[in-house]
């Protein structure tokens, strides 16, 4: 029988990781992910979890430890946030190129400067190009389930890539909700012990991360791209398999909410999707045909699924809690590129919202919908993103 408990989001993640039986954990504290690795440390110290727990001296070292552990054939895990994730970037790029299937929790937090510990998705989005699969979650329950599926996705012989489960800091990690915990036997059935095809073995020597001359680097990158494309279908299968065991189904690579007849569709990732569902309900009660597409898998980018969900709409508001400075939000750029040239494609308006923890409430969502409808009705194309909730009177002009 599954057990329902009221848990902090970080504790739910720690319990999910415990259920997956990783053999090596590396840990370095940075808010707001610290409670996750603290929880795992307690499991190991109390003898409830059989794993090598390595307290390292930096996030770079944390990534290096799980990279080495994975190369040695172990199931491995760590977590980090913000500047810590960026400090891992050199190792993560190398790990993806070496096809090392570990799991990371990327707890979304603002990147300095200015110094802020509040939530946005700039940190995890900055790592979107390294070759790592990225899953974004709306709730702590979804985070619990996503971690269990993440190990199976990473370790699939045709994928073999790191998977990052991205969850919003504080909003999810430090809030409490009812979490349904699956039985260990169900997790064990779904996720058997890791049996690596390639690992460091003195009796069968292999090379990882060797020199790549100009005649092979493109082929390595192409192989990762092929694995990403294959992963689109495999992730759906793994999500469906776990849904059949757990009874909890969040959709596939995306989740569509009231999009069938929607004229304006909001598109977002993470915890803000929950507020947007309430806003969609209220807007529909007022007569506005609004829907929501929540992206669960950002990398690989599920543009085919998004197109099927939005192709009947007049406009799509992409709400980005990140910004590629000098251009626009990353999701907005991705979607515009993929929809370019599609027949009767809806107007795509990029919206920058939630940076540094700025509240994305129902009132703000309503204003976003109004702005998009205004743009659609007038027939003009917004070449710059719409900044939701920006206060121009306090924009600094220099340092």
Named CATH architecture of the largest domain = 3-Layer(aba) Sandwich
Query: Which regions contain 5 or more consecutive residues with pLDDT less than 50?
Result: none
Spell out the CATH superfamily of the largest domain: Thiamin diphosphate (ThDP)-binding fold, Pyr/PP domains
Please give the alpha-carbon distance between the first and last residues: 58 Å
Strand content range? 15-25%
CATH topology-level fold name of the largest domain: Rossmann fold
Name of the CATH first level of the largest domain: Alpha Beta
Number of H/I helices: 13
Biggest sheet details: 7 strands, mixed
| Chain oligomer state | single chain
Return the domain count.
2
Alpha carbon gyration radius:
21 Å
Written account of the structure:
The protein has 399 residues and is of the alpha/beta class. The chain is built from 13 helices and 15 strands. The strands form three sheets. It has a seven-stranded mixed β-sheet with strand order 3-2-4-5-7-6-12, with helices on both faces. A six-stranded mixed β-sheet has the order 9-11-10-13-14-15, with helices on both faces. It has a two-stranded antiparallel ribbon with strand order 1-8. α7 (140-155) links the parallel β6 (133-136) and β7 (163-168). α1 packs parallel to α7 (140-155), α3 packs parallel to α5 and α10 packs across α13. The radius of gyration is 21 Å and the shape is globular. The mean pLDDT is 96.
């Amino acid at each position: 029988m599954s057990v329902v408990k009221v848990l902090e989001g970080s504790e739910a993640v720690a319990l999910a990781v415990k259920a997956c039986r990783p053999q090596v954990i590396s840990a370095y504290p940075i808010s707001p992910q610290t409670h996750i690795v603290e929880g795992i440390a307690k499991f190991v110290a109390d003898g409830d979890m059989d794993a090598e727990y390595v307290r390292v001296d930096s996030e770079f070292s944390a990534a290096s430890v799980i990279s080495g552990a994975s190369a040695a054939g172990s199931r491995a895990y760590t977590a980090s946030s913000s500047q810590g994730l960026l400090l891992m970037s050199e190792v993560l790029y190398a790990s993806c190129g070496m096809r090392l299937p570990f799991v990371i929790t990327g707890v979304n937090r603002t990147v300095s400067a200015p110094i802020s510990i509040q939530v946005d998705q700039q940190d995890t989005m900055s790592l979107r190009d390294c070759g790592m699969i990225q899953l974004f979650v709306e709730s702590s329950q979804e985070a619990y389930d996503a971690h269990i599926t993440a190990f199976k996705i990473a370790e699939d012989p045709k994928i073999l890539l790191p998977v990052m489960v991205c969850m919003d800091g504080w909003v999810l990690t430090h809030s409490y909700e009812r979490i349904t915990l699956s039985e260990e036997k169900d997790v064990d059935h779904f996720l058997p012990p890791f049996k690596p095809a390639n690992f460091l073995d003195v009796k069968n020597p292999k090379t990882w991360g060797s020199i790549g001359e100009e005649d092979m680097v493109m082929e390595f990158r192409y192989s990762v791209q092929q694995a990403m494309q294959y992963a689109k279908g495999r992730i759906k299968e793994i999500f469906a398999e776990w849904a059949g065991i757990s009874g909890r189904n969040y959709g596939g690579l995306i989740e569509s909410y009231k999009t069938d007849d929607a004229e304006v569709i909001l598109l977002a990732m993470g915890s803000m999707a929950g507020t947007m569902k309430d806003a969609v309900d209220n807007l529909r009660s007022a007569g506005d045909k609004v829907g929501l597409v929540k992206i669960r898998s950002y990398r690989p980018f599920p543009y085919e699924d998004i197109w099927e969900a939005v192709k009947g709409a007049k406009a799509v508001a992409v709400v980005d809690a990140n910004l590629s400075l000098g251009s626009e939000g990353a999701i907005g750029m991705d979607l515009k590129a993929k929809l370019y040239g599609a027949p009767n494609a809806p107007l795509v308006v990029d919206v920058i919202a939630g940076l540094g923890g700025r509240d994305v409430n129902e009132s703000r969502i309503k204003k976003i919908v109004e702005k998009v409808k205004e743009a659609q009705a007038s027939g003009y194309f917004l070449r710059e993103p719409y900044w939701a909730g920006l206060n121009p009177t306090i924009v600094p002009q220099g340092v």
